[in-house]
Input
Amino acid sequence: MSKVLNYINGEWLEGSLKKFVPVVNPANGKVLAEVTQSSDKDVHQAVQAAKNAQKRWRLVPAPERAEILYKVAHLLKERKEVIAQILTSEMGKVIDEGRGEVQEAIDMAYYMAGEGRRLFGQTIPSELRDKFAMSVRVPVGVVGIITPWNFPIAIASWKSLPALVSGNAVVWKPATETPMTAQEFVKIYEEAGLPKGLINLVNGSGSVVGTAMVEHPAIDLISFTGSNEVGKVINGRAGELLKRTSLEMGGKNAITVLEDADLDLAVEGILWGAFGTAGQRCTATSRVIVHQEVKEELEKKLIHRIQTLKLGDGLDETVKIGPVINQAALERIDGYVKIGQKEGAKLLTGGIIVTEKSLDKGNFYAPTIFTDVTPEMRIAKEEIFGPVISILPVKNLEEAIEVNNSVEFGLSSAIYTVDVNKAYTAIRDLDTGIVYINAGTTGAEIHLPFGGTKGTGNGHRDSGVAALDVYTEWKAVYVDYSGKLQRAQIDNYEST
Output
């Protein structure tokens, strides 16, 4: 049985608890490896290594830092298939999605390597004579990143790559369910020549390792992707410690289908958004807001297409929907389906844990559609994180936008229409950080900011140039070459 270890200060180490837990394939229940578990002692060791390494790394010119990121990109590209196979085995998503996720990390590495020559500041005219003014970016210091199991390498790339190119050091707690992918990513950093201490991997539970990271005084920033419940706890404690946080949390994303929409195209977007990754995405489509005139036709098309979707092990190239991550997720999803039925929503298809013999050792839930859902129902408001769609009928665009915005989250939204006026109205009025026109709610590209409004996050963004604002501080610089004392706001204005 292979062992997944911590990586601290350039060494692969067993956690101080001397305890391992199994890594399980959610498609068949087979144990793939064992991952070490850590305590606050391991976190402290990693932080000290990061702190020492960052003192040197911040002095390395950003273009030189970027050269290592280019090597990371090349190595990821070479090992794309190997990593995708590992990712699919421990997380469950179908292999095409696994490959796509690794490609996202490749793209992010190339993009952030380019930012090594574009960590732009500003030069600003001073209000005084013989004085120069500018602003520059400087690194935050030691960054703690806490990443989820549903995108074990993509989200880690969103956080670690901009942090490193900006001159920070990283302490990373990956999800316990997907440590093998994390290990492969760190091995690539190691082979690319990243100096020891700049990337440190600490495996363990959120309650132990995550808490120790939030509490540690030498970690200057926590970047977290996960549930709202955990995010609120992190933000509350970090606020007391005056520690910066970047939070990307839940979503209750909707596709709006208007009466003039291309329904076949909308069906494609709904199926991909709702059932890709078995609905376990923060951008997953969990609501379909449809104009009442086309509601029945859309439902018929969706039911017909769902019947063609094959469930199974994601390593099988013919499978379209993989398992959910574990038994607890399976029970939570089934619990929400029962809530929907009690609330009076009409179940069109699915709604069961799959128990057929070929799948009974895995965690499979049948793709599920509810209709005649109202905005007040829990299944229309709460994040289910599984392959469940709620269909909500509306009379017009204005009502659709109101229903879309009625939830506490604001990550992603989409609208299908051929009316350009309605499309631009939706762009303006949909209260989400991401808006798609004639496409589903998933498919964000790494060179644009990723994140949302309201309960989805705290205003920061992963990905794109916006990510640099998370991992850098602004420093204002004034150079006075007048040879005399000049008092801003006093000497530059005549007394009145």
Q: What stands out?
A: Residues 253-437 form a domain with the Aldehyde Dehydrogenase; Chain A, domain 2 fold (CATH 3.40.309.10). The CA atoms of residues 201 and 283 lie 27 Å apart. The chain has a mean pLDDT of 97. The first helix runs from residue 40 to 57.
